[in-house]
Write a structure and sequence with these properties.
It is built from 8 helices and 5 strands; from the N terminus they run H-E-H-E-H-E-H-E-H-H-E-H-H. By secondary structure, it is mostly helical.
């Protein structure tokens, strides 16, 4: 797991729920909060490496060739894609085993046609929330109602855009 995003703790909790003995290595930047890192060590038994993942020395130390999955959970979308690309260049066997949280939808859309994007799994929390909302709340109304159901999106921020994307996917 690479990053300091709040999603790190969610992922670690789910990992512990799934497999309490799984070994997780967390790679964080040098400016990470020592208090937060101590909490993660204590609560989840995670091994913490403080460094920059694109450093050759760190690549060797975290033994990525033995990783079953790599999660990149950071707030900088471009840096995340850069890390994914660097990892794939050094460890092509991880093709399809890297998951990237991309907080910026615009960056995610711009990168969608790149070779790196085709080799990784990426997600955005707005897209996940929109998918859930559409599947649980909107689709049942569309399935039960008349053919000309009207949907009004009040607000067109990242979440509204994600809902519209999902609805357009369903319409195709």
């Amino acid at each position: 797991i690479i990053g300091e995003d709040p999603l790190v703790e969610v992922v670690l909790q789910r990992l512990r729920d799934f497999d309490s003995k799984a070994l997780a290595v967390l790679v964080v930047s040098r400016d990470a909060s020592p208090y937060r890192l101590a909490q993660l060590r204590k609560l989840y038994g995670v091994l913490v490496r403080i460094s920059d993942i694109v450093d050759d020395y760190v690549f060797e130390k975290v033994r990525l060739k033995r990783a079953s999955r790599v999660l990149i959970l950071g707030s900088d979308s471009l840096a995340g894609f850069g890390m994914a690309h660097s990892i794939l260049c050094r460890h092509p066997e991880l093709d399809g085993k890297i998951t990237l949280h991309c907080p910026k939808l615009r960056v995610m859309r711009a990168m969608s046609a790149t070779e790196t994007m085709c080799s990784i799994n990426s997600f955005n929390i707005y897209q996940l929330a929109a998918r859930y909302l559409v599947e649980k709340e909107i689709e049942p109304v569309l399935d039960a109602g008349p053919a000309k159901t009207v949907i009004v999106l009040a607000g067109f921020g990242r979440f509204g855009q994600s809902i519209l994307e999902r609805l357009q996917e369903l319409a195709l």
